[in-house]
Amino acid sequence: MKRNPSMRIPLRRNAYGVTLIELMIALVLGLLVIGAAIGIFVSNKQVFRTAENLSRVQENARVGYELMARELRQAGGNPCSRNSRIVNVLNPNTIWGTDWGNGVRGYTGAQAFGGAAFGTAGGARVAGTDAIELRSGEAGAATVVDHLPTSAQFKVSTANHGLQDGDIVMVCDFVQASIFQITGAQSGINVTVTHNSGTGTPGNCSKGLGWADPPVCTTLGTPYAYGPNSVIARLRATAWYIGVSKSDAQRRSLYQVQLTNSGGVPSRQPQEIAEGVHDMKLQYLMPEATDYVDADNPAITDWNLVSAVRVVLTMQSNENVDVDGTPLTRDVAHVVTLRNRNL
């Protein structure tokens, strides 16, 4: 059958198509919705990263400060009296030398100290950052029963005194205190503690434990007999500094160096306490002073007179989350009073 050209197939009125303009508008609206969703996601992710890094910064600052402040408060203390004169008869010219009589000793960023050398390896001290050494008598002391200065021997009240050969200790009464290295001590075996010269590392320059300034480094030195109820305690000696992180050479951490006894020989072992500590600024308060001063200030004439330390830790986040694309940086400042200097 031949089709008539004039005949047309009727279209349903509700059968509409999508024009190109409508399709483009729909695509644009879809892209706007997707872009908004992505923007919210990215913004939330950035907020989360910033909050997480800020929390880590605050946590590291709290841990570092609390541990450091605890030792600062105890610096210069001994089990007997806060006003005791302290003599140090360890051999001089070593990192354990005679200046270890002070409870606190600070160093500016340009001053070297025995705790750690300047360098770029993991654990090395970062140049330009302050450092500090702290010393005090530990708890758990042994009570003296008898002291024989000529034979350089202490008798203590129990064999379970906890002291070992090579320990650096402090003995004190209410007149003075002495820092020296012991030999022949065997906790749990005998009650004798020896402080003779000529043995051990670094060893004692004298067996005389009497106070003198400077210490008299001869065999007998300045004799002094500690009476019954005097106390012998290990010397707690630490140093705090900013060092290169052991896990990332581009970052810095707060380190503690602690005096330990390694096979009868004292050693200083660095420990990474808190990461992300980029800098440390330390200033000191002298009696009747109106402000804190740096460690190299001429106003510090005697470290035994320092009564408080101002600590400023500069913290940095692990990631570049600040608005300018750099690590988040915060300064945490605290003032710590040395309890043994303010009683």
UniProtKB/TrEMBL annotation:
GO biological process per UniProt: type IV pilus assembly
Annotated TM spans = 20-42
Q: Which domain of life is it from?
A: Bacteria
Keywords per UniProt:
Membrane, Transmembrane, Transmembrane helix
Q: Name one Pfam family in it.
A: N_methyl
This one is known as Type IV pilus assembly protein PilW
Q: Which organism is it from?
A: Pseudoxanthomonas wuyuanensis
Q: What is the lineage of its organism?
A: Bacteria, Pseudomonadati, Pseudomonadota, Gammaproteobacteria, Lysobacterales
